[in-house]
Amino acid sequence: MLFDPENDIVKLCAHGMALEGEGKSEEASGVFMKAWNEATNDVEKFTAAHYVARHQHSVADKLIWDKKALEIALNIEDEQIQSMFPSLYLNIAKCYEDLNDYELAGENYQSAILYSNQQPDTGYNHMIKGGILNGIKRLDTYKTNFKDEESNT
């Protein structure tokens, strides 16, 4: 099992999630950063980076951590990690969308959809795919509105 519940970094991240559940976001953020600082291998670093990303105060900082998590994940040859690619690309695409970089958002939504088509038919994967398709739809709406504005000038 790749995510060993006895692993110290996994334990830290589980503790951070418990703190999140208690509404202690700042404490959780500190625990996730501690996990990042103590991680000794790619699986631990990926796990910690994924959680650190969730606690960034700006979209730009979240993007940095999401990209870091993806970069590390791409170096891990394991199906469990690879099954997270759609979610990772979705997170990155949404950051780019929020930063109004619609070209990079679109590229990442396309990567997300490609990886999601390789995943099993589960409720989680349906949720992720729904997020991806909604993002693509938002970009299409933006492009349509942008073209309409250009033609009116």
Task: Please tell me about this protein's structure.
With 153 residues, the chain is an all-alpha fold. It is built from 8 helices and no strands. α2 runs antiparallel to α3 (42-54) and α3 (42-54) runs antiparallel to α4. The protein is globular and about 60 Å long.
Topology of helices and strands:
Blueprint: H1 8-21, H2 25-38, H3 42-54, H4 59-74, H5 79-82, H6 85-98, H7 102-116, H8 123-151
Helix pairs in contact: 1-2, 2-3, 3-4, 4-6, 6-7, 6-8, 7-8
The total count of strands amounts to 0
Helix/strand class? mainly alpha
The first-to-last residue Cα distance is: 59 Å
Low-pLDDT stretches are none
Quote the beta fraction. Answer: under 5%
The shape is globular
Characterize the largest beta sheet: strand count, sense, and whether it forms a barrel: none
**Helix proportion range:** over 70%
H/E order of the elements? HHHHHHHH
Rg, Å, rounded: 17 Å
In DSSP terms (H or I, runs of 4 or more residues), the helix count works out at: 8
Average pLDDT metric:
93
Outline of this structure?
78% of the residues lie in helices and 0% in strands. The chain is mainly α and 153 residues long.
Keywords:
globular, 153 residues, single chain
